[in-house]
């Protein structure tokens, strides 16, 4: 009689695990793979040419690649999540955005405004830096 509870317990566990068998997976189905490819293929990062007017260029575009050709005394980056390339010399670079990358040939001063977080300025010069945000970086690369 002592064997009945053990046999009953083993049978119960075996029946319970029978519903937990693994099935063979062949990876994502064709429809889910093509849906993922289609969803990501429509967006193209805008390429924008910046302009310096009366010594100042203001970059307001979000999620874009912006190129500013030549020297400009003052550059203000307002647009977030963007990549800005400046091919000339800048006296004053002000970054009021978040998560932006600014590449500048030469810059004298860099100011990160209050709330400007997670930005990176890449330059070979050694500018004076003021940082009112968090996690900002000025580096050679």
Please characterize this protein's 3D structure:
This protein has 141 residues and is an alpha/beta fold. It is 20% helix and 37% strand. The protein has 2 helices and 9 strands; from the N terminus they run H-H-E-E-E-E-E-E-E-E-E. It has helices spanning 3-18, 30-41, and strands at 47-49, 56-59, 65-68, 72-77, 83-95, 101-112, 120-122, 128-131, 137-139. Strands 1, 2, 3, 4, 5, 6, 7, 8 and 9 form a 9-stranded parallel β-sheet that branches. The longest helix has 16 residues, at 3-18. The radius of gyration is 28 Å and the shape is globular. Residues 6-15 and 19-37 have low confidence and may be disordered.
Write the layout of secondary structure elements.
Layout: H1 3-18, H2 30-41, E1 47-49, E2 56-59, E3 65-68, E4 72-77, E5 83-95, E6 101-112, E7 120-122, E8 128-131, E9 137-139
Parallel strand pairs: 1-3, 2-4, 3-5, 4-5, 5-6, 6-7, 6-8, 7-9
Instruction: Give the number of DSSP strands.
Output: 9
Element-by-element helix/strand order: HHEEEEEEEEE
* Overall geometry: globular
Rg is 28 Å
What is the beta-strand fraction? 35-45%
Distance between the termini: 78 Å
How much helix, percentage-wise, in residues? 10-25%
Task: Give average pLDDT, whole number.
Answer: 82
Q: Report the sheet with the most strands, covering strand number, pairing sense and barrel closure.
A: 9 strands, parallel
Secondary structural class: alpha/beta
Q: Any low-confidence stretches, pLDDT <50, length ≥5? A: 6-15, 19-37
Query: How many helices does DSSP assign?
Result: 2
Regarding quaternary structure, how should these chains be classified?
single chain
């Amino acid at each position: 009689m002592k064997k009945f509870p053990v046999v009953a317990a083993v049978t119960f566990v075996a029946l319970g695990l029978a519903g937990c068998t693994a099935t063979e997976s062949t990876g994502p189905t064709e429809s889910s793979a093509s849906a993922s490819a289609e969803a990501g293929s429509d967006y193209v990062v805008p390429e924008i040419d910046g302009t310096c007017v009366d010594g100042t260029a203001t970059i307001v575009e979000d999620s874009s690649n912006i190129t500013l050709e030549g020297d400009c005394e003052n550059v203000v980056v307002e647009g977030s999540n963007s990549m800005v390339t400046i091919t000339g010399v800048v006296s004053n670079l002000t970054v009021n955005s978040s998560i932006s990358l600014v590449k500048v040939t030469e810059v004298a001063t860099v100011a990160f405004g209050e709330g400007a977080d997670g930005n990176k300025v890449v330059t070979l010069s050694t500018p004076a830096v003021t940082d009112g945000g968090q996690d900002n970086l000025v580096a050679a690369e």
